[in-house]
Amino acid sequence: MPLPLFHHPAKKIHYSTSDHKKFNSISHELVCWFKEIKQHNRTALTAMDLKKIRYFLSDTSPDAFTGKEICMLLSALVWLSNKQKIKEILNAEWFSRLLNKVGSNAKKLQMQEIDSVWRSLKKLSITKYDLEEHEVDMPLLDALFNCIKEEADFNMRHTVNTWIMLLYFNGSEKKLAKRPELQDRLFDAINDHAKNFTSGGLYHVWHGLVLMNYTKDIFIVYPGVKNCLLQSIFDHADHEILTSHETSTIWYGLARMGFTKKELENERLKNCLLNMIFNHMNSFHTINIPNICWAFSAMGFKKTDFDKDPLLKNGLLDAIDIHIPEFNFNFTVNTLWSLAIMGFTKRDLVNLPDKLLRKILCLLNKTSMNHGGLIFNELRQLLQAVIWFDLKLDTALQEKIQTVLRSDQQSVSSSQLHNVVLKRLRKLAPEFYFESEKDPACIGSVDIYLPVFKLIIEVDGPEHRFSRNAFKDALLRKQGFEVVHLDFSSIVGFVSKPDIDKRLREKILPILYPKQTHGSYQNIASALPRLTKKISNKKEMEHKEKWVSSNYTPHTAQRQEQPQPSPRLRMTHFPSLRTK
Questions:
Q1: How far is Cα 439 from Cα 337, in angstroms, rounded to an integer?
Q2: Which of these, 397, 411, 503, 525, has the minimum number of CB atoms within 10 Å of its CB?
Q3: Dihedral (C-alpha) 49, 53, 59, 64: value to the nearest 10 degrees?
Q4: What DSSP letter does each residue of 118-184 carry, written as one string?
């Protein structure tokens, strides 16, 4: 539909001789058009304006504009669009030309200009995904890096805005790591200005660090930045000047960066932040509730911690109850899974006002059945929560979940320690069939699985998170599996084969070859039915049965004292049965 043509009377603008000489240039026409819009404070887009915009974007030389003129073009579009999305005004072709014009002239932008470009793009509802799709994010990011490098006075306002722009231009920890001098400049700026941050500035810097995938390990390189940031968080929380959204974002960011409950206690942050969460419990937005619950579970909070503070516990569960009608599939699954991780039981939730658990389950069944793009991690969390709380899902949904989870089992990679343990185990017990990195219960991959005994062996190195291991162990035992952990976390450096063999002989071999009360290994007759399940050769099976009957009958009691093991079974596995 063509735009209506509006006439806006304007005063006649007088130009000097030098102005008339360059009036024919496209740059000067842009400047005059911008002045005319600004002078009359126009907020409606006319057909003539649309014609001029297409004229400016159709210039054959893509880098014909200066950085200031790019800012003028975008600012004019912001005024004329009147809070309307630019995609709704321009078609796909001219929208692409607009972004290409910005990207080709990005290298000319100064610090103030790139700040103006970022604000204009955001007001035009141009997302960072649009920038990435049209390959404009990298030129803008390079321009920002150059401005940071050349900026002499990097004040607090520049520091906060830079972290916002880095996030908007798809910056990441990996991209900044490739430019160590710029990363040093940014973190030094945080160190210099963190004590003067407002609550909004603290929120934006912390939000940028978290979403750019920084972890607390970066503070090993910049220890002063950690102290300044955590002190700033403490000051704002202690004086209760953080808003509900800022509180939830900082709490969620601490968990995303890897901080634990114990570390927060050491930094005096735990009590003041918990007080802020309690004070804002009735004003949190819907998205804040799942993030807070996930942060509690990730930091290592348990149900016993909430039992010591019943006001916080009841406030959190009541807030979940209030926001459940607004939850989507993702929010509902994350909230229910976080409660399971923290150790809440079905009894704890059923006894709440309005029967919280039944509302969650009802919403889960309703939203998940209509959810088109089921995400693998969400499905796994859903199944784990269902097992933990002994809930019932729709049959069709449960089959769909298990199908998706089983289809993704081959994407898990094994660690070097796990591979060595598996090789030693196969060497010490060659009769058994061991599976590596399987997910027998569809609730999480396990290191080693023995189907005959429903035995799961977990190899715990220094990187294992034992709180999550305990939760997964409880789920597996509820499904009827036996779980054994081989703990190598106390060994510093290289784990030798004798260390592995020692743990295998202590914990695994007694399960595979049980002992009698008097100390010798149990007779092989009880172990042979399990061993022969995998043997397809009928003659070997008959040979084993004949050997058992000849050695374990009353008529051959003298031979039982010195039994001769089967040639298929290694003598080293039965030290008490060796012949003299």
A1: 19
A2: 411
A3: 110
A4: HHHHHHTT--HHHHHHTT-HHHHHHHHHHHHHH-S---HHHHHHHHHHHHHTT--HHHHHT-HHHHH
Query: What three-state secondary structure class fits 302?
Result: coil
Q: Are 479 and 543 found together in one domain?
A: no
The tens digit of pLDDT for each residue in 109-142 reads 888 899 999 999 999 989 989 998 999 989 999 9
> What is the spatial distance between Cα 473 and Cα 272, in angstroms, rounded to a whole number?
34
Q: What tokens appear for 312 in the block? A: 């916080």
CA gap 134, 151 in Å, rounded: 28
Determine the longest span between alpha carbons in the chain, in angstroms. Answer: 126
In a domain, 51, yes or no: yes
Residue 249 is predicted with a pLDDT of 93
* pLDDT for residue 228: 92
- At 7 the three-state DSSP class reads coil
Q: Is 89 in contact with 81 (CB distance < 8 Å)?
A: yes
Each residue of 302-361: pLDDT tens digit? 999 999 999 999 899 889 888 888 888 788 888 989 999 999 988 888 766 456 667 777
Buried b (16+ CB within 10 A) or exposed e, 493-528: eebeeeebbebbeeebbeebbeeeeeeebeebeebb
CA distance 99 to 126: 9
Number of other residues whose CB lies within 10 A of the CB of residue 73: 23
Question: Kind and range of the H or E element at 483?
Answer: strand 482-487
Global pTM exceeds 0.85? no
> How many structural domains does the chain have?
3
- Looking at this protein, which amino acid is placed at residue 575? P
Residue 372 lies in a domain: no
Cβ atoms < 10 Å from Cβ of 68 = 16
Does some domain include residue 308?
no
End position of a domain, from candidates 95, 121, 152: 152
DSSP state of 352: S
Q: Quote the tokens at residue 500.
A: 């592995």
Non-local (6+) Cβ contacts of 29 within 8 A are: 23, 52, 55, 56
pLDDT at 431: 81
Rounded CA separation 461/540 (Å) = 40
Which residue in this structure is represented by tokens 């803008």?
140
Map residue 447 onto helix, strand or coil.
strand
Where does a domain end: 96, 127, 152?
A: 152
On whether the CB atoms of residues 432 and 450 are closer than 8 A, the answer is yes
Q: Which residues of the chain fall short of a pLDDT of 50? A: 1-24, 353, 369-373, 465-466, 516-539, 547-580
Q: Which residue has the tokens 């005994």?
A: 453
Amino acid at 330: N
Round to whole Å and give the CA distance between 316 and 369.
27
Full domain range(s) for residue 12: 1-152
